[in-house]
Write a sequence for this structure.
């Protein structure tokens, strides 16, 4: 009986010690997932210096990607859902930044292949981030939604956390903006989770 009690006490101490080591690590990893990146501050209209053309007949979504950012897979999963629900009312321009220090071409990245499979997406390689700077996109996965007249309607991210797909404020907002009436002069904002672009 005493032996069983001693074993129970030792087992309880071992469990408490294990939890004391594991829980802070889990908390740290989880907490980091919810820290947004430092998003840009875009102009309220489509940048006149942009080399890409917007959709004059509907909405245009602009998304920036770092070719080596693991968080951006979730962004593309969410983009796929948005495009499926948009029913042709939306085009998406996805810019994959090509950095001089990365030897592999952006077109050979896994993100490029994933984005290429999404209907309605126009893919482009952005040499040294020139185009994403024109939109002031600073975080991989950062997204802008523009209306038919070139007005900025949404800025931010479309994921719930770093590398986590799922129902997000960004996705809900974009879908509601392309499906329903718009509030003129109102720009919707959501946090963006991803690697820094520049």
């Amino acid at each position: 009986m005493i032996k069983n009690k001693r074993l129970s006490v030792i087992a309880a101490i071992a469990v408490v010690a294990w939890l004391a080591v594991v829980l802070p690590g889990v908390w740290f990893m989880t907490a980091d997932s919810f820290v947004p990146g430092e998003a840009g501050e875009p102009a309220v209209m489509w940048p006149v210096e942009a080399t890409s053309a917007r959709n004059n007949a509907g909405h245009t979504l602009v998304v920036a990607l770092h070719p080596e950012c693991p968080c951006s897979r979730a962004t593309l999963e969410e983009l796929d859902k948005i495009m499926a629900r948009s029913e042709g009312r939306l085009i998406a321009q996805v810019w994959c930044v090509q950095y001089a220090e990365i030897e592999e071409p952006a077109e050979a990245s896994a993100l490029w292949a994933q984005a290429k499979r999404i209907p309605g997406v126009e893919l482009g390689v952005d040499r040294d981030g020139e185009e994403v700077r024109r939109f002031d996109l600073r975080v991989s996965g950062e997204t802008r939604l523009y209306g038919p007249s070139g007005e900025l309607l949404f800025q931010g991210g479309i994921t719930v956390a770093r590398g986590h797909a799922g129902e997000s404020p960004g996705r809900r907002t974009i879908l509601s903006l392309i499906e329903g009436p718009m509030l003129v002069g109102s720009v919707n904002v959501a946090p963006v989770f991803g690697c820094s672009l520049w």
About this structure: The radius of gyration is 21 Å. The chain has two domains: 1-33, 59-189.
